[in-house]
Amino acid sequence: MKRENGAPIGVFDSGVGGLTVAREIMRQIPNEKIIYFGDTARVPYGSKSKETVTRFSRQIVRFLQSFQVKTIVVACNTASAYALDELEKETDIPIIGVVKPGAKTAVQVTRNGKIGVIATEATIGSRIYSKYIQELNENVTIYGKACPLFVPLVEEGLWQDPVTDEIAKRYLTELIDIDIDTLILGCTHYPLIRSTLGRIMGEKVTLVNPAYETARELRELLDKKGILNEEPPELGDNQYQFYVSDGAEKFKQFANSIIKYGILSTKTVNIEQY
Ligand code: DGL
């Protein structure tokens, strides 16, 4: 086995949302080590400019590379929309985002050719989902809706709450009226309110969580490059390591509520140094 097979995978997000992607990687490729970085000091990315999100993403990639990661997953739709192209050009290890996998799944799932995308203002404004979906099938129509209040509601833990219900109804009504049959959860926080969204959209609408396909494509990529870790990490190996730019304790509590593997430690990093 090449030494690189045992190297970790770098996963990053603007904060806690990317944990929904990390969780799926842990489930589908359980032998892999993960270094997760959540930019909790600078979240949200969804209301920032392309230049700012790209600068933040470059710093995080440099930080993750200090661990000799074998690949990087941009587990944030906003960073995937704004920065992935630049990062791919500048980095010599494979980097994958969450937008392309989500677009691919939605095109496979839709029957009436009407796909809704809910995401941050940045992701919707970038029209990135439309671009990838239309590359795959130009007969599909895409309806984007920015839902900026969902991220703070999720971060406040209001996953099942009348307030979240009310706001979700306001955001989603126009997509229901258009009769979409597929809805992409185009922000990594949204899978955490999946049951609320599913109930409001009704059972005729399929919800697409890009995390599943991202983890599947990651596995395929590692396999193709011959760097899949075939063996489980040694006992005592710190398989999952978490880093944040602020609020390590709060992050740890949040992470433990959504990831079943105990998150032993979360360290704070001065990301501006990278
Ligand atoms: N993680 C971000 C995304 O998937 C949402 C949170 C933010 O605005 O930073 O777009």
Automatic annotation (TrEMBL):
One of its GO terms (biological process) is regulation of cell shape. Substrate binds at residues 13-14, 45-46, 77-78, 188-189. The keyword Calcium does not apply. It comes from the Bacteria. It catalyses: L-glutamate = D-glutamate. The active site is at 76 (proton donor/acceptor), 187 (proton donor/acceptor). It holds the Pfam family Asp_Glu_race. Pathway: Cell wall biogenesis; peptidoglycan biosynthesis. Its EC number is 5.1.1.3. Keywords: Cell shape, Cell wall biogenesis/degradation, Isomerase, Peptidoglycan synthesis. Belongs to the aspartate/glutamate racemases family. NCBIfam families: glut_race. This is Glutamate racemase. It comes from Candidatus Acetatifactor stercoripullorum.
